[in-house]
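Box 3.1 A note on notation
Throughout this textbook, protein chains are presented in two layers. The first layer is the amino acid sequence; the second is a token string describing backbone geometry. Keep the layers aligned when reading.
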Amino acid sequence: MRVLIVKLSSLGDVVHAMPVVHDIREAHPGALIDWVVEPGFAALVRRVDGVHAAIECALRRWRKRWWSADVRTEWRAFRAALTMQRYDAVIDLQGLTKSTLIARIANGTSYGLANRTDGASHEWPARWLVDHAIRVEPHIHALDRSRVVAARALGYSPHGAPQFGLHSRLASLPQRTVVFVHGTSRDDKLWPEAYWIRIGRRAIDAGWRIALPHAGDAELARARRLADALGPACEVWPAMDLDALTDKLGATHGVIGVDSGLSHIAVALDLPHVQLYNFPTSWRTVERVAASASEGR
């Protein structure tokens, strides 16, 4: 069996789709699974146990210069890669018009979401652009949504806790280190700096070192302020790509983080983790330890 997953972005959503790969291979041993994803997340997808190939689709960049010759050339190459293989199933896990159009181009029977679920994006044309639209319970965890859609498309029942298939390639750091994931894509998800400093001092008093990753100028400035307040036991990590950051994160001993893609990577790496939410919607993306895709709803 050969399966194509379409899940382009964003980082947290891509992480939440990872357990689908384990589920498919458990139900269909030997299945070859390809994945269409934005280039910024392709290295992460390639690390997932069971992914045969990550097909990069730079839609975000292409839309800014769709008329240019280089974009047209890249699009033709992408389309050729997408149609090179015959797939037994093409499963769109995103539920957007752009993702279902990609699923429609691929060479195989397509499946996707028939309805919107609480707290998740969905565009009504999506259900009409796939060969088979699958209705799921509207009040459903993000992990379960992907697992249920794939299971119904391929005729199996998912069970057990989600298996992300993501691992660090580095040995654990010699000193107990906790990572503060303080940055996120939305300001309303941030935690006050005074709170980070307060919990940081308690962690340091308990013998922990603190690591501060960052992405972009604003996060770097915040990380430096926190490090100045917390002293030599707190380290601002250098800028690094997502692949290297995943390894470095996985070598630490725990994470405290706001609702962000990096926090979800920490969960996928099976690190001890405290997630911080400012909204009562944490049920949709908070770590799932034991509940299965078919239980507890």
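The radius of gyration is 20 Å. The longest strand covers residues 32-37.
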